[in-house]
Amino acid sequence: MLPGESGLVLAKRWRAHPRTKSIPIIMLTARGDESDRVAGLDAGADDYISKPFSTKELLARIRAVLRRRAPEQEPTLVIMGQLSLDAATYRVAFDDQPVKLGPTEFKLLHYLMTHAERVHSRSQLLDQVWGDHVFIEERTVDVHVKRLREALGERAAVMLETVRGAGYRITTQTQGVVSVSPAA
């Protein structure tokens, strides 16, 4: 028993809160009945260890939980048409020409490219790019989208669409754009 409340209540609270829902939880307890283990796992624990246990077993279970909880590795190279972004080298290019971006525009483009063809509201972009702990105006997104379009240049900027009343998306399905090649 924890001081003040049970581990079950604490686990449920942590799982319900957006800031703590992804923190791994391992319950260490003297209660080893099947019903107790099931209740602990149902409350949100990633693992449940009954006393007595060895240090080696505890460490092995911690490693196992961390392996299961490790974030998926996002691809370092993302390509959409002629636009490419390499997160490992922090390089962006359009039609093999380098594109210079500020750190926020880079993160914004990276998020949009790894979640292409989907419409993202300003508040979603604020949470995903700036983080949910930052309190800034939603119109800040508009400023950074404008900067991103300017940096991408006229030909690439059409990939970044404003979806009226909904937000922004990046797409290779640009409408109304006609590509004209110079006569040979």
Question: Can I get a quick summary?
Answer:
With about 180 residues, the protein is an alpha+beta fold. It folds into 2 domains: about 5-70, 3-Layer(aba) Sandwich (Rossmann fold), CATH 3.40.50; about 75-170, Winged helix-like DNA-binding domain superfamily/Winged helix DNA-binding domain (Arc Repressor Mutant, subunit A), CATH 1.10.10. It has helices at about 5-15, 35-40, 55-70, 105-115, 120-130, 140-150, 155; strands at about 25-30, 45-50, 75-80, 85, 90-95, 95-100, 160-165, 165-170.
Walkthrough of the structure:
By secondary structure, the chain is an alpha+beta fold. It has 2 domains: 7-69, Rossmann fold, CATH 3.40.50.2300; 77-170, Orthogonal Bundle (Arc Repressor Mutant, subunit A), CATH 1.10.10.10. The chain is built from 7 helices and 8 strands; from the N terminus they run αβαβαββββααααββ. It has helices at 7-16, 34-42, 55-69, 103-114, 122-130, 139-152, 154-157; strands at 26-29, 47-50, 77-80, 83-86, 91-94, 97-99, 160-163, 167-170. The radius of gyration is 24 Å and the shape is elongated.
